[in-house]
Each structure stands twice: as C-alpha cells, then as structure tokens.
Model the fold of this input.
Amino acid sequence: MNKITPGIHMLVFLLVAGCTSVPVSEEAIAKSSQNERVISVLNNLIQVDIDTHHTYTQAMLALSSSQLAQTLKSFRDEHEQHIKVLSKIVLARGGTPPKFSRDFKGYMISGYTAVKVKGSVYSVFQAMETNEALSVMYHNDALKVDLPNDVRRIIQMHFETEKNHLACIAEMKKQA
Done:
C-alpha cells in the first residue's frame, strides 16, 4: 500500500467530527518556539493514539475469534507504547501530555466504531481500517512540520508502524 487514500467512510467521519483535511492544527504549525511546536504536535499524536487505543478495545470485545482479537491486541499495545514514548518526550520538554481519555474526536470515532462492531467481522475491520487510516494521516501530517531530527525519527517509526497496522487490517478485512 503505497498511497493512503481515504475511503468514503473516513471522509464522512471527518466531516461529521469536524476534522480538517490537515490533522496537524494550524496552531501547532504557527507556534513561535520550536519547543512549543514539538509539544503541540506530539500531544496531537498522543491523543490520536489514545483514541485509537480505545477503538481497538471496542473491536477486540466484538470479535469472537481469539486469534483476530489477539492480533488487534498487539496493535493496541503498540499504540500504548507510542503514547508512553511520546509522553516522555513531551514531559522532557516541559509540556503536559493529554490524559488517557478520549477527546471530542475520540468520542466520534468511538461512536462510529460502536456502530460498525455491531455488524459482521468485516464491518469490525472496516471500522479499524478507517481508524488506522486516520492515524496514518495524522502521522503523515506531523512529519510535514519542522521538527528536530530525533523527534522526526520517532514519528517516522510510529508512522511506519501505523502503515503496517493499516495494511494488516486491510488484509484481514479481505479475509473476513
């Protein structure tokens, strides 16, 4: 999967949730100091990982197959690891990472996921594909911001993980 193209479900979701086409806020890009910009971008990614973590829990509960649920658990655990790594950087830079709770967008994602997981296994993976596509989009946009190389490398590694999640979920959806 070379290019991430949002599906109709994701576009509708973005409109309903009030998300812009550029997930990194203009505020983050406009921050005067690089440190403020880094903290803002990382907090944005932490929140995306928190929201995605919650949706994985929803999807895992909906799946009866322990193997599929186990795969989703491993993806959820990677999001949890991303939260820990990025939170340490935010703290080291004098910032405060978000609390481990959903924001407005997270509640919208959760609602979307809740509807989808009531359906077939296919619809569970459709929901998770949309959620991971959003995560990929946020990470991709974060990489467009002027960031220190060490922070950029970490975001790039997380971006690669998210793309892997997306590809795996797309494959599981095909097999559902």
Observations:
- The domain at 33-175 is CATH 1.20.1260.10 (Ferritin).
- The chain has one domain: 33-175.
- Helices lie at 8-17, 26-30, 34-62, 66-92, 104-117, 121-142, 149-175.
